[in-house]
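[Discussion] Sanity-checking designs against the backbone

I'm trying to build intuition for which residues belong where. Below is a structure token string of 557 positions. I'd appreciate it if someone posts a full sequence so I can compare it with mine line by line.
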């Protein structure tokens, strides 16, 4: 197994942009250790969990009592222990002992990126625990925070409470305003009644954050409040919670997703009772970034598997990698994965500041944060499926066999387009930002500024992006003032146009600072986005293939 520096130089290239020297040196060392753990022990356990060791519901004990326990295999438990001890959640909120300072989301998401290459199913509970920790630290009162946050961010010094965020109800789905779960006041706490229909990490979490409607509150999202619900009482009994059943999912089988019924569960209000939906949307944005990180992780693993197979598989007397179309495919995958990884870490760096310093972040910055999250979550999720498909096709028949990792990559990737908002929902989010905050004006200005700051050399091949920006302006002008159905019909199309432009700008900026190889990556990415059907006379993938695959002139970090 190659060390991380050789296996993924692009990751270190990105981290060096956003981490100071001290944190970068620490991250490089610890990520190398975690990378080795992921690609050996955790990867093997993930196969077992997916194939034979899926979570199971133990509904009743031998006396017929409803105990609603979730069984997970011992290997999965070991992965849980090892992963949280790395500080993937904890060091965002507390000091790293070796450094005497906190980490940040850039480092945490780098860990998530590595984990998602081998066990994206388990990255879901990590995500939910990250969201729970954020909600407690930023919105809970001091008493609630002091009692529960140390457990949620534990790295081994106290009992770990994994987290969960329960939003979805059967009658509403994405329409959260239709939620009906009730909260009944009982002095300094509440009792929760009702059902959550798609509750991930059920039975494994120590605490869950739950949206519920206090009796007498107004309808819609404005009447929802956020509560912290311990899964068990202090004596170990269930806290008025039952699991009806576990979902039989296509993929990400490591995470138990359930239908959960609350029957008088003791709960504690988080923050202002009138801001529950707002709080959960902040957590949702965090989860959407996690979703994008999981997507680029799956993309990286799919590319690595396709590349390795192409170099080793002999067909018609030659390695697959000797054939021009194979080289084109691999070069195209490399460009797309690197550019989208770069875009995600640019977003994460911005997100880190906006989320951790909400008081100092301007309204414009918060809106920009929401826009980039929507665009990148939408695109990377779709690309994860595409990459998994390409990896299967590279393997031929073998790619369809469960002895290889490729079928699992495809099954695990598919959920990423659904979790935390489909492309349609995200398209509507972009439309809301355009209507309410005129974010398109800030976007067009920012993209033009970025183009104007490029060197003449890089600007010489940016013409397709400039043309795309003009087309976006024209499309927005045509939509302005149109009726509702016209605007919503084109919302996803506008979002995709914006994403194409943003990713292209990221590619061009990397070309400025990353040397010859990053310039080739940028040229290939622009070709893929803007001139996909045009005859490629230059055949860049063939001409620079070894450089793109790090077979010569290896990039230093």
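Best answer:
Here's mine. Compare freely.
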């Amino acid at each position: 197994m190659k060390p991380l520096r050789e296996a993924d130089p692009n990751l270190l290239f990105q981290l060096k942009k956003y981490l100071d020297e001290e944190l970068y040196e620490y991250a490089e060392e610890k990520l190398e250790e975690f990378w080795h753990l992921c690609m050996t022990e955790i990867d093997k356990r993930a196969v077992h969990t997916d194939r034979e060791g899926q979570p199971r519901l133990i509904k009743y004990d031998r006396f017929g009592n409803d105990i609603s326990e979730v069984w997970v295999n011992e290997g999965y438990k070991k992965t849980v222990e090892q992963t949280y001890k790395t500080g993937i959640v904890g060091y965002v909120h507390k000091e790293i002992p070796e450094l005497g300072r906190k980490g940040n989301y850039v480092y945490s998401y780098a860990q998530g990126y590595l984990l998602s290459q081998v066990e994206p199913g388990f990255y879901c509970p990590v995500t939910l625990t990250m969201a729970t920790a954020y909600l407690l630290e930023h919105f809970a009162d001091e008493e609630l925070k002091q009692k529960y946050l140390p457990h949620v961010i534990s790295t081994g010094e106290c009992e770990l409470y994994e987290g969960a965020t329960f939003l979805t109800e059967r009658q509403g789905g994405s329409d959260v305003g239709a939620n009906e779960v009730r909260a009944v006041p009982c002095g300094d706490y509440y009792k929760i009644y009702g059902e959550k229909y798609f509750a991930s990490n059920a039975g494994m979490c120590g605490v869950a954050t739950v949206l519920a409607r206090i009796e007498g509150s107004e309808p819609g999202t404005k009447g929802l409040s956020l509560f912290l619900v311990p899964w068990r009482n202090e004596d170990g009994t269930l806290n008025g919670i039952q699991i009806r059943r576990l979902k039989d999912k296509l993929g990400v089988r490591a995470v138990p997703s359930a239908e959960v019924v609350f029957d008088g569960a003791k709960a504690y209000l988080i923050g202002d009772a009138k801001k529950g939906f707002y709080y959960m949307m902040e957590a949702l944005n965090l989860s959407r970034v996690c979703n994008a990180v999981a997507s680029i992780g799956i993309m990286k693993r799919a590319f690595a598997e396709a590349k390795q197979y192409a170099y080793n598989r002999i067909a018609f007397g030659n390695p697959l990698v000797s054939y021009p179309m194979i080289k084109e495919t691999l070069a195209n995958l490399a460009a797309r994965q690197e550019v989208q990884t770069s875009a995600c870490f640019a977003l994460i760096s911005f997100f880190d500041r906006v989320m951790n310093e909400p008081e100092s972040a301007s309204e414009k910055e918060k809106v920009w944060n929401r826009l980039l999250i929507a665009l990148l979550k939408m695109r990377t999720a779709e690309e994860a499926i595409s990459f998994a498909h390409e990896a299967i096709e590279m393997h031929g028949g073998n790619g369809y066999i469960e002895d290889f990792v490729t079928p699992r990559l495809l099954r695990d990737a598919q959920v990423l387009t659904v979790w935390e908002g489909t492309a349609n929902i995200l398209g509507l989010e972009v439309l809301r930002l355009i209507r309410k905050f005129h974010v398109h004006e800030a976007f067009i200005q920012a993209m033009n500024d970025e183009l104007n700051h490029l060197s003449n050399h890089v600007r010489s091949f940016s013409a397709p992006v400039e043309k795309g920006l003009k087309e976006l302006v024209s499309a927005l002008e045509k939509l302005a003032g149109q009726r509702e159905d016209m605007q919503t019909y084109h919302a996803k199309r506008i979002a995709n146009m914006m994403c194409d432009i943003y990713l292209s700008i990221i590619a061009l900026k990397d070309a400025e600072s990353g040397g010859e190889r990053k310039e080739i990556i940028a040229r290939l990415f622009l070709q893929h986005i803007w001139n996909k059907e045009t005859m490629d006379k230059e055949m860049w993938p063939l001409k620079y293939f070894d450089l793109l695959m790090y077979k010569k002139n290896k990039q230093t970090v």
